[in-house]
Amino acid sequence: MVRFGYQPKKINKIMKGSEFNRRKFIKGSAAVAGMTLLSGLSAETAAAYEHLPNETTFWEAPTPVIKPIAPRIKFSVIGINHSHINAMVDAVIRGGGEFVSFYAKEPELTGPFARRYPQAKLMTSEAAILEDPAIQVVLSSITPLERAPLGIRVMKHGKDYLVDKPGIITLDQLAEVRKVQKETKRIYDIMYSERFENKGTVKAGNLVQAGEIGKVIQTIGIGPHQVNPKTRPAWFWDKKYYGGIICDIGSHQFDQFLFFTGSTSAQVVSSQVGNVNHPNYPNFEDFGDVVVRGDKGMGYVRNDWFTPDGLGSWGDGRLTILGTEGYIEVRKNIDIGLPDKAGNHVYMANNKGVQVFDTNKEVLPFGEMFVNDIVNRTGTAMTQEHCFLATEIALKAQHNAQVIPLKLS
Predict the structure, then answer these.
(1) Full set of structural domains in the chain with CATH
(2) How confident is the model over 239-272, as pLDDT tens digits?
(3) Prediction pTM value
(4) Strand ordering across the sheet containing 326-331
């Protein structure tokens, strides 16, 4: 497979008989590239805009066209401090949720959010939602430090909870959340959007479950991000408010490690974090990596805030899955080796040959599965223990990480 430079004749020859169609690929990719510029047009694109927490162009983007199934639950939103909330709301609407109401204490955010979702009523307090017996689920992207305490209040009011990552930022918070969840039997799910709202990762999951690469040995997940200082709120620069880089960004990669290896227990082999190039923000972490070992596979995680401005994406997020009979690589947000750089592409090599999948038409199942879990009291979208274990690994890796002494500035 040609990795550097685009050579159509060689690629066409390699892909003959596969699911890869170059003409269709280029046409579809161009459409996706255009959608990326209009970041609010789709849930998966919204999830991708990790580097735009409150940017006006994001919040003011047109409301996406959603084709929901008939509403089966009523839900509300409390806290909209990160734009991931858009993807979360869209996913639940697609899955059969009726968006009833929302509350946020920041007027500069409530206006644009209300215009995006005019069907939802702006409430004057958190209590107005928590005490509404018609509301079954609360969604939130409130600041990370506040997410677990809010989730505890939500569960104590008899409601289920879907929260942006990181959904819990300390081991003490995790212990309390586990305790209340066990007592109330409510659902506390974290929206790991790099798996649930990325079509390439969904496709990779289907391929692995179909046995296309045998048994999974290891996952390598990298989460590079663009820092964009002018768009960041003050809390972004102090890890006491977001838990640190491994807790925050790394939570995605630990979720995927557990999912693809099938591990139900894991230990952190080594971890390190550092602020190597942002001396003006001494409480910030811009690099971290982890080696983790599970009962059914191994993993490596790297997170950083060094995506260059010229890339054209918030980050070249990738996932590599090594199996006993092949491997898969997911180019999530961008593929710099293609002429239009479109993401959502999956590369697979196994004993049958090589295939490339354009997954931009893949169905995202999380929303419907999550709503089913609310209605049926099941864990099909994500088991409760998986949710907590992914968080626990991230928190332990963060807590025990060695501090990198390297300074580049």
Answers:
(1) 56-193 (3.40.50.720)
(2) 999 999 999 999 999 999 999 999 999 999 999 9
(3) 0.83
(4) 353-358, 345-350, 326-331, 318-323, 216-224, 298-304, 287-294, 266-274, 402-403
